[in-house]
Protein: Response regulator transcription factor
Amino acid sequence: MTGVLVIEDDDRIRLSLILALQDEGYRVRGAGTAEEGIAEQRRDPADTVLVDLMLPGLDGYECIRELRRADAVPIVVISARDDTHDVVAALEAGADDYLVKPVAVKELSARLRALRRRLRAATMTPVPTMRFGHLEVVPEAGEVRLRGEPVPVTRTEFRLLCELAHHAGRVLSRQQLLERVWDYTVGDERLVDVHIGRLRQKIEEDTTAPRHLVTVRGLGYRLQA
Structure:
């Protein structure tokens, strides 16, 4: 049974999420502060963590960073904040997904299942190394290398780059990337834009040189040598 940890300071919302997810078949625990949640995750790691941003004491962003330092557990933000700045900041802190309150439990459950499928897919038979100039994508090792040196990328960034590499030279729309990388039929396209931006910071050596990750206005993104 998949374990979920809900870090939410509002007792009513936390209990509602716990009961609803239990009805969906999850094993669910709750914490009212970031500190309690981090301690609980260290004591008995859950398969997925849900985090509110507006927590007392240590806020949600720092909570995500602390959880991410410890392991690669999937983290989903559930917040009343829907500003793009908040979405970007949460994803950059290390969250895998972002949902705006009020959250439909069926949608949340679908997102959690998609996260688990993505983790299982990561264990499937790897494909050979793909090279694009000085950039190498090495599925077998789960690595990205630039001029032979490993580039630190998150699990989602790696899957995104692999998907673009498999279709090098082709334009993939944001919706196609959401479906293939996040396994979402419906989702926030800002997820794609934020992760593309982070990848660019890591693999583009010279901003004046031609880019590996190319934006095709109105269509999507393309990976080229």
